[in-house]
Amino acid sequence: MILSALLTSVGINLGLCFLFFTLYSILRKQPGNIHVYAPRLVAEGKSQRTNHFNLDRLLPSAGWVTRAWQPSEEDLLSTSGLDAVVFMRIFIFSLRVFTFAGIIGVFILLPINYLGNQLSIDFSDLPNKSLDSFSISNVDNGSNRLWIHFSAAYVFTGVVCYLLYFEYSYISSKRIAWFYHSKPQPHQFTILVSGIPVSSGSRVGESVESFFTKYHPSTYLSHTVVRRTNKLQKVIDDAEKLYRTLGHLKSKRHTQQRFRRDGFLGLSGRRVDLLDQYEKKLEDLEDNLRMEQSSLAGEEVRAAFVSFKSRFGAAIALHIQQGIDPTEWVTERAPEPQDVYWPFFSASFLKRWICKLVFVVAYILLTVSFLIPVVIVQGLTHLDQLEVWFPFLRGVLTITFVSQVITGYLPSLILQLFLSLVPPIMIIFSSMQGYISFSKIQKSACTKMLWFTIWNIFFANVLSGSVLYQVNIILEPKEIPKILAEVVPAQASFFIAYVVTSGWTSLSSEIFRMFPLICSFVKQHFTGNDGEEFQVPSIPYHKEIPTILFFGLLGVTYFFLAPLILPFLLVYFCLAYIVYRNQLLNVFAPKYETGGKFWPIVHNSTIFSLVLMHIIAIGIFGLKKLPLASSLTIPLPVLTLLFNEFCRKRFLPIFRDYSAECLINKDREDQRDPTMVEFRDKLVTAYQDPALKPIQYSGSIGRLKSPLLHSAVA
Amino acid sequence: MILSALLTSVGINLGLCFLFFTLYSILRKQPGNIHVYAPRLVAEGKSQRTNHFNLDRLLPSAGWVTRAWQPSEEDLLSTSGLDAVVFMRIFIFSLRVFTFAGIIGVFILLPINYLGNQLSIDFSDLPNKSLDSFSISNVDNGSNRLWIHFSAAYVFTGVVCYLLYFEYSYISSKRIAWFYHSKPQPHQFTILVSGIPVSSGSRVGESVESFFTKYHPSTYLSHTVVRRTNKLQKVIDDAEKLYRTLGHLKSKRHTQQRFRRDGFLGLSGRRVDLLDQYEKKLEDLEDNLRMEQSSLAGEEVRAAFVSFKSRFGAAIALHIQQGIDPTEWVTERAPEPQDVYWPFFSASFLKRWICKLVFVVAYILLTVSFLIPVVIVQGLTHLDQLEVWFPFLRGVLTITFVSQVITGYLPSLILQLFLSLVPPIMIIFSSMQGYISFSKIQKSACTKMLWFTIWNIFFANVLSGSVLYQVNIILEPKEIPKILAEVVPAQASFFIAYVVTSGWTSLSSEIFRMFPLICSFVKQHFTGNDGEEFQVPSIPYHKEIPTILFFGLLGVTYFFLAPLILPFLLVYFCLAYIVYRNQLLNVFAPKYETGGKFWPIVHNSTIFSLVLMHIIAIGIFGLKKLPLASSLTIPLPVLTLLFNEFCRKRFLPIFRDYSAECLINKDREDQRDPTMVEFRDKLVTAYQDPALKPIQYSGSIGRLKSPLLHSAVA
């Protein structure tokens, strides 16, 4: 790619971003869009719909930037929870890393690269200069200037490791402080026990009761046996749907302002009949449901939520193997009640294990077979290749603008499109794998997405997309540095374009919320829905975090290869910081709280990026005929991995569990709390399956919030 | 190697074994050797020295075989502990596996191999037939007979997995039953806490006391702070030595029956002076020691043994992270008091971690550099190579007997010699790695030795010993099956000879106890020591288990390649069963009890052998032009690894820890035990460093047993 193609791409994207941000600043002020751009504020009652018109509503403004900037981390913590704070720390960490990298890269490495003569390109014509002349490929073989790159790699690794340590330690302390300040919550007192052995003739509940009263007499409080409610859930969903339609119809009869829309549908004549008919149907369904609830209650799963009187009591039962047979009485931490993923609740130890294996294999297969679209996309950056394949395109491709758009913009857009299909698939895989909570499903999907992205975007692109070639690289480990050193710098221009197109565009589409906006528009204008029935979305960490981390990986690996990528990344992270802050404050409401458990993924990904960078460095210095530098780089990945190992020992346990010290202190604090008696009463029923809770629709028409606590994640 | 060379080797070794066993059956009846052949019985007072002469003493007999055969497993459990039972189960398991393998191998695979024509060797001259004609190499390429080998691999894997499962389950139940029947022991109630944070001005003991009384008020009993006693230990050793000499001199003055030996030494004139002089010196040393004990007591290490009132209480503190910082208040299970390895007690978290890393690297370096002697030994089996290197040997090597001895016997003997140096080195490495007990050191050394043996004997031999070649094989995983399939069958004759020489000889030297016999002889006849002062040896598991497992690996990998190895292995395991039973009953006394924790090593090693066999099978079927069989073998290692994963989940936790159910039941049993009060009093001082215990030699001359509880392992 030449410089002018990059500039075209930057220009298009800057324009698009500017357009989207301007549109956003106007559209967000329209009262009809309040459910799209501030659903969270509406749900919390902080935002009131004002219908009076003023000119200010039509002018773009940057006030939202200031409002997103202002709240402190403490404010964010109190409104959006620790997970949101940790999410924002990714940007702060990345900004620190890439500001440092940017200074070194642009002011030291870039001039050195540009002054090299290896690629011997004409000096005069800057716009037509290949981007490769800004990369390390342009430095002369055996040149002593490469020692500057070598030092930069060491210094950069040191700085990143220091920042990683600092962040890990900061978030650890945040997590502990957050735990100390948390109110008593059911999941802190509860564990999930599966593989409960049941003697013939007795029931699961009896078995649990007798086991825990025998072995934990002083701390055991209560239990809730898990039941299979898939069928029941279907009936409830039907009732729910009916109830909503009914509520909708009723509200229309009383509110006069919606007449306009009624006429639009042409249903005004049959309105009352329909209402009565629906109410009758709903009552029938409810009777049906109550009968099913009592008859299906017998379908017990050999698993139960067991609650204890203290957090420490729950921790004891959690950490010590309970039964003699390790496959029985298997304990795990209970998720928050609203976080439990009820639909897939397979209790058998063996079944869960097999499911896990099957879906890990499925994940690997998907990751590998996804290469096919990537290969096609990769073809677009090699125009000559494309011309060979599709000769009829030759005429079009000679037009400069078309070829620039195709090489600079289209590939990333198509990749983006394919990629957007993957996160939901990963969620399905993770949920099938047998995780019991949305948070765990999302965390697992996040890791899956991360490796998927790294493999399918980074490796598939640099390795020319040939599946066979990729398999070969795993099987010849000693060749890896050499191969990577050859192919990674060659793809620098693709990834710079990728940051500009995919990165910047993803942010503007994130803030613009195109899809919800269209949905809301269609709802309001065609179905007559006034938007009062809506769900506050939760942030899809499994989609966002891998994307952000992937840009981090690009920055780290290309830091000394092609420092030209760094300014574009810095722009991305600055924009992302503001955009996501805005979204967290206005749009997304937390559905659950993991207490910062996403951070270790960020840490691991950064360590992986560093080691990848080192491996490429080893190869590059070898290729550049500087074998001494190549050998001297070898300690760098070793030291980085040792540092990682140290962090794993020093911080990771904090993210897994709370220590006895924390738990006991918190328990003692509770003893002085008079509300604990009330809390314990609630605790007993906290983990009841929502499908088994008594349901009463017919009398309660008019309520807006659904009686069901759970909803889909993605 | 040709058949006659193998037969020569078998002949020599059978003769040697017969000789050693005969000598053993005579020598063991001599009263002077009772400390060599039955030290355990002497220590337990079960064997009395009878000096009256009868003819029977000079005749070889097989009575010891019957006596070793008779005791049941229960008897062995009560006299030698669970570890000894588990050790014997290795032989029972191996006998079962190789009886089955032997039947299939010798009666089905061997004839098929022999009837092949691939190597086209003359059929008539059996003694000069190469051993290769009994191996799979002789089967015709593409022959359908290979499907029998294929089926044999599947059936054999199935049987081995079934037996593995059965053994794991059997030993697990034994372990739990053994725990239920055990008396209260200090290590069940105690944990070792390291990384204790100490605020300035306070002492470690105070910190421990305040932490555990705060967080475990109901279960905490007492603590013993660990102290650095290396210097003190040296003084004690000196005193100990002096005390022994003194005791020895004294006993000689009073017992009249030792006059014969006194005259031999010619020291009778100065006897009394020496005694007084020594006693004076010992008293001085003791004063010195007491002073040092009080002055050095301040050198506290930031670690302490913390005892609890119940086993469950100890388990709670063990399994739940105690402090907020995971590198502080690090808990681990306390070893038995006599099992604690005091000399190396590094308490800092970072120091222990670095030590571990350093010695793992040292271990890898040793394993690799050990190849040099192996290469030389390997040269001996290639006579032609040897003649090229040392032309002057040509004359000698043409003599048939010499060349047969060199190819059949010498290589394994030299290997054996080098290998005997390795176990002590592994013990040193493991102890430097920071393990806190002899049992852990031995377990770690056992694993180290196992991989060392597999790598240096198996892989170094099959891969022609070239270091470079071996590094290449790691770096080209896809070539592994092909390379192994080429080289492993070629070394069949070497390993058959190895089983016969190294295996059989090691057993006869084990029972004959050459080295202790010589030591005892020298002591009795030259130093005038009457043998009353002796230590009962403990079985060096780290040396024995890897050897036995290595023979198992040979049997499993060569099972379908060269079934001729199986009868020799069966002989080995039969002999070993009797020999080790005899040694366990008469010679070795258990120094500590791990409760069968060595079994997982056996399990893993067998799984590794199976997978190695499968990989070779994949390669062999490929080489033999039967690609379908090669592909159909691929599920076999996958299934085996899944089986292993299942076993890890099903059984391994039992070997790591006891479940809450076990611990609480056992604790409740204790509550009815009136001796518990007394036991708890003892518990408080159980973990005092022996170097800090009050020492009183001067008044107690005449006692035979040392006041020190600990002694070297190897």
From TrEMBL, chains A, B:
One function term, GO molecular function aspect: calcium-activated cation channel activity
Membrane protein topology class: Multi-pass membrane protein
Transmembrane segments: 6-27, 97-116, 146-166, 353-376, 388-410, 417-438, 450-471, 483-504, 548-580, 601-622, 628-647
Residues of the CSC1/OSCA1-like cytosolic domain: 188-343
InterPro entries: Csc1-like (IPR045122), CSC1/OSCA1-like_7TM (IPR003864), CSC1/OSCA1-like_cyt (IPR027815), CSC1/OSCA1-like_N (IPR032880)
Record-annotated CSC1/OSCA1-like 7TM region domain positions: 356-621
Keyword Membrane: yes
Keywords tagged on the record: Calcium, Coiled coil, Ion channel, Ion transport, Membrane, Transmembrane, Transmembrane helix, Transport
Subcellular location(s) of the protein: Membrane
Any one cellular-component term (Gene Ontology): plasma membrane
Domain CSC1/OSCA1-like N-terminal transmembrane: start-end pairs: 5-167
Pfam families, per database record: PHM7_cyt, RSN1_7TM, RSN1_TM
Main location, first listed in the record: membrane
Keyword Membrane: yes
Regions annotated as coiled coil: 275-302
Stated family: Belongs to the CSC1 (TC 1.A.17) family.
Protein name: CSC1-like protein HYP1
Species this chain originates from: Vitis vinifera
